[in-house]
Amino acid sequence: MVSIEPSRLSGGRPRSYSAHRVNAFDAAVMDPDDRLPVEPAALTRVLRWDDPVALRRAAAALDGIELLRGQIDGAYPPVPASQLLNLSVQRAALGRVQLRYRPDPSHGDEGGHVHGGLVAALLEATLRHAVASSLPAGLTLRTVELNVHLVNALPLNAAGSLLDGTVVHGGRRLITAEARLRDGCGVLYAHGSTTLAVQPRGDAPPQDSE
């Protein structure tokens, strides 16, 4: 406690105040001698992504499974969001995909784990890839509903993180899918499901009429 000398405003009685408590974050960035703010070490991440125009053109002319297999072979770049999330397609079949995730320090929360919002984005991206694998050319997707269950906190040093996505029900207008996030040892960290609406692409080439 900090004691303050009497004053007229306090009626002549000493007043006490709780001393400032330095929390863990403050202690990490404050100099222990004078408790003046010290600038923390800055980390930098350089982001690069491919121009999505070429990818959109390919997506307008190719079936979803052809596009995904082309991304695996390196013929087409991933979508910019996948590059931001460090996601890459490993396997693709009709209605099923497997993606690999590489955690990055910039993805972390204050506890040293991958941020929960980012895990949700990983699942949503996997779900969209799974549904896209079942689409013919000229169609695109819009997320209608997304449900995410965070089972365990994913450490930033987790190795071999894989996401598996599967179409559960395919309709003409709405498609549902589910996805799971596991590490290389098979430990489940999160799972989710989605409903996606199917709609024509605005940049799709005109269909031949008979």
How would you describe this structure in keywords?
alpha+beta; Thiol Ester Dehydrase, Chain A; 8 strands; disordered N terminus; disordered C terminus
Kindly describe this structure:
With 210 residues, this protein is an alpha+beta fold. The protein has two domains: 1-42, no CATH class; 52-200, Hotdog Thioesterase (Thiol Ester Dehydrase, Chain A). Helices cover 23% and strands 30% of the residues. The protein has helices at residues 24-29, 52-61, 64-73, 80-85, 116-132; strands at 2-4, 15-17, 87-93, 96-101, 139-150, 161-170, 174-182, 188-200. The strands form two sheets. The protein has a six-stranded antiparallel β-sheet with strand order 3-4-6-7-8-5. Strands 1-2 form a two-stranded antiparallel sheet.
CATH T-level topology of the largest domain: Thiol Ester Dehydrase, Chain A
Number of domains: 2
Q: What is Rg?
A: 25 Å
The CATH fourth-level homologous superfamily of the largest domain: Hotdog Thioesterase
Outline: globular
List the helices and strands and how they pair.
Blueprint lengths: L1 E3 L10 E3 L6 H6 L22 H10 L2 H10 L6 H6 L1 E7 L2 E6 L14 H17 L6 E12 L10 E10 L3 E9 L5 E13 L10
